[in-house]
Amino acid sequence: MLVSAMGIVLGPLYLFPIVANVVSNEQWHRHLRQIGPTTAGLAIQATTDLSSLPISPWAGLGVLAARAGSALLAAGLVLRLRAA
Length: 84
Hints:
single chain; mainly alpha; 4 helices
């Protein structure tokens, strides 16, 4: 059970950069980089050369907040289903 939970949590960290590099369409490549958790997290820390980033720092914060919120919602639903 722990191994599958770790895969669900850590999988997207590795999945988005790999898929983004495999996709040949430039528009999809940029979109996948924008919604990836690693790129969004690193964009929040950037202070210089912001125009070269695939996503702005505030949008990166929004992506991470949406991911955290959806993870908490999913965890709450699973907890409620197991308690019933």
